Amino acid sequence: MGALIYGSRVSELEIEDRTLAHLQFVVATKLRRNEQFMLTWNHGVERGSGRSAIWISPYIPVHFKFTGGRAPKLNRAWLEALLDGANSPAGLHHIPESSVGAAE
């Protein structure tokens, strides 16, 4: 299980490495363009349900920490769906890979 570590308060969000690699691509793409956006996720029942959101900005440090040693092959359709979300007023939400098609 990987983690996304955000800001100086060192908030960690546990994310599976494959998903984290796709989020890293989307976040890096947006930050390279100097674009800010909202990242929202749902808490599982094991964490009391609910959801959280953070503002992603080029002015706040972000750190991607992977537990695996190999970078996964990225799924272009999934990346496009995630980028579409990040470019929307609602911001970036987790979209299951299975809902956008197979890896290329």
Summarize the structure in words.
Helices cover 26% and strands 27% of the residues. It has a three-stranded antiparallel β-sheet. β3 and β4 form a beta hairpin. The model has no long low-confidence stretch (mean pLDDT 87). The chain has 104 residues and is of the alpha+beta class. It is globular, with a radius of gyration of 13 Å. The protein has helices at 17-32, 76-86, and strands at 2-6, 11-15, 37-42, 51-56, 62-65, 92-93. It contains two helices and six strands. α1 crosses α2 (76-86).
Q: What is the percent of helical residues?
A: 25-40%
Overall, the morphology is: globular
Strand order of the largest sheet: 2-1-5
Number of helices: 2
The largest sheet, given as strand count, sense and whether it forms a barrel, is: 3 strands, antiparallel
Total E-strand runs: 6
What integer is the average pLDDT? 87
Q: Which structural class do you get from the secondary structure elements?
A: alpha+beta
Strand percentage lies at 25-35%
Q: Radius of gyration in whole Å, from Cα?
A: 13 Å
Could you list the spans in which at least 5 consecutive residues all have pLDDT below 50?
A: none
Measured between the Cα atoms of the first and last residue, the distance is 24 Å
What is the N-to-C succession of helices and strands?
Answer: EEHEEEHE
